[in-house]
Amino acid sequence: MTITYDPKHPLYTDEADVREELTRVYDLCHGCRLCFKFCTSFPTLFEMIDQHDDQDAGRLTPAQQDQVIDECFQCKLCYINCPYIPELHEWALDFPRLMLRADAMRHANKQIPVRSRATNNAMGRTDLMGKAATIGGPVTTLANKAVGAKPGSLVRKVIEKTAGVSSVRLLPPYAKQRFTTWFAKRPKLRIAKRQGRVAIFPTCLVEYQQPQIGHDLVKVYERNGIECSLADTTACCGAPWLHSGDVKQFTKVAEANVKALAATVRKGHDIVVPQPTCGYVLKKDYIDYVGGDDAKLVAEHTYDAAEYLMKVHKAEGTSLDTEFPGFVPATVTYHTPCHLKAQNIGLKSRDLIKLTGAKVKLVQQCSGIDGMWGLRAENAELSIPIGRKLADEIQRAGGDVVAGDCHLANTAINEQTGEEPMHPLQLLARAYGIAEEEA
Fold it and tell me: What DSSP line would sit under 219-257, residue for residue?
């Protein structure tokens, strides 16, 4: 049994070694049970072990071990709640990274069913699909008719059969114009008093599906004297490959991105990421799977969009414009995405919203999407009830506006409540009186 989360370790994908480590960790989790409420992996695990009189985790079959793995959606909340993580305890228990290791082992040993492999390939090629769907004209119209078809419809069922994307989930539509196209065409603004220089890593969701978030980010930043450019790469961060266990493909993507992003930083730019899962990958996963000085440099200079603004606001000699002549709601229900909490940067989006004078009601329930796990057909039955819990909390909070940083989580909120949440940067833009541009 090897306690390692290093993908370069020779035993990282050795099945016997991985399954022994799963037994060790499952036994520790069963004895603690602190995480019983965070996802279905833990109740499932505890129930299976409890069926044995001696409650021995070693009695679980490989199939039972795999069920726990499949139900983990990498929300990363273990890092916030587990007292036995490597930084805190000699047991060095890192459940999320062990699940990634187990996924990688199953992928390397060809234990992934054909259907799941097809879904992984479809969901992993976000740039390919995004570029094709945002060509414009009839192609974009046809793509949006497909993803925008009524959940449960024949079109959606065909997509589920071919790509493995759930036929009952609401999907975000594609934009008519990509964010990077808009950025290249926009009038350049001369900044009189510069308070920062950032390169935007837009993420697939902002690039292809919600470019308005990027529009508002740029305009808010420039209003506050922050010079904006594009990062030397705007390719997908690779999260879909990592979360499906394809370490080889993820590492290939990550190495290319690290090289380009490190070059961006060396030009004097910080990197700003408007989506939390992608920010987490740049800050944490690139260090684990690529490593080296460049990965560390990228991580040290990567910021969430609200995090960077609050850094400017609190730093000596710089501050944000706190005059808000536009629309400011009385109350905002703010949803904190799991992958933002796991970055351990504090609630910067909440603090940013508070600057407008709005009262913030905090909701911290997981959306059950977490990357793309909740959009897979086989996970819908587990994911949707989690989204309903979030919807219930949002409706109980009763804010005038709902805000959240993660567009996929926001889509789940829209699916379950009918309300379309705003990104905090969009809310700040409207408070400044900046009009929203057409997608």
Answer: HHHHHTTEEEEE-S--S---HHHHHTT-HHHHHHHHHHH
Q: Which of 14, 205, 249 is nearest to 109 (CA)?
A: 14
| Per-residue confidence (pLDDT) for residue 243, from 0 to 100 | 92
pLDDT band at residue 38 using 50, 70 and 90 as cut-offs: confident
* pLDDT at residue 290 tops 80: yes
Is 80 exceeded by the pLDDT of residue 1?
Answer: no
Other CB atoms within 10 Å distance of the CB of residue 66: 17
Those residues whose C-beta lies under 8 Å from the C-beta of residue 430, and which sit 6 or more positions away, are 326, 327, 422, 436
Side-chain-facing half-sphere of 21: CA atoms under 13 Å: 26
Task: In whole angstroms, give the CA distance from residue 312 to residue 9.
Answer: 40
Place of tokens 């200079």: 301
Side chain identity, residue 96: P
- Cα separation, 241 vs 239, in Å, equals 5
Q: What is the DSSP string of 66-128?
A: HHHHHH-----THHHH-TTSTTT-TT---HHHHHHHHHHHHHHTT-S-HHHHHHHHHHH-HHH
User: What's the Cα-to-Cα distance from 24 to each of 1, 18, 95, 247, rounded to whole Å?
Assistant: 9, 10, 11, 23
pLDDT averaged over every residue in the chain: 94
Task: Give the pTM.
Answer: 0.94
- Specify the pLDDT at position 90: 92
Locate tokens 């309300």: which residue? Answer: 419
With both helix axes pointing from N to C terminus, report the angle between 137-147 and 154-163 in degrees, rounded to the nearest 10: 90
Question: CA-to-CA distance for 218 and 248, rounded, in angstroms?
Answer: 34
Distance, in Å, from the CA atom of 146 to the CA atom of 33, rounded to the nearest integer, reads 43
Q: What is the CATH number of domain 331-432?
A: 3.40.50
3-class secondary structure, 166: coil
Query: Would you state the pLDDT for residue 326?
Result: 98
3-state DSSP call for residue 358?
A: coil
Does the pLDDT of residue 404 top 90, yes or no?
A: yes
- The confidence score (pLDDT) of residue 2 equals 85
Predicted local confidence at residue 439, as pLDDT: 65
Phi, psi of 164 (to 5 degrees): 80, 10
